[in-house]
Design brief:
The chain is mainly beta and 85 residues long. The chain has no helices and 6 strands. It is globular, with a radius of gyration of 12 Å.
Length: 85
């Protein structure tokens, strides 16, 4: 089953130099739900996170955390989970 780790940051990576960024403040392992999200990309869910992820690029196209959208200026990154079985 395809899985990603979602990393959530309290900043927009495009607006901050890499050496000024801190670590992710939350992470979640999400698994494919078999559904297509509103963005048109596959939906993944787990650990209170639902995300539409482009499986080819790993781009997070839509996300909710504990049922809410991310605050403005926050960002999320998906990393393919290589420990998936």
């Amino acid at each position: 089953m395809e899985r990603f780790e979602i990393l959530i940051f309290p900043f927009n990576e495009q607006d901050m130099p890499e050496d000024a960024r801190g670590p992710a403040v939350r992470s979640a392992i999400v698994r494919s739900t078999g559904e297509q999200g509103a963005s048109g990309f596959p939906r993944y869910a787990g650990d209170g996170v639902q995300a539409d992820i482009d499986p080819e690029t790993g781009a997070v196209e839509a996300i909710t955390v504990d049922g809410a959208e991310l605050e403005d200026s926050w960002s999320a990154r998906a990393v393919r989970d290589t420990e998936a079985s």
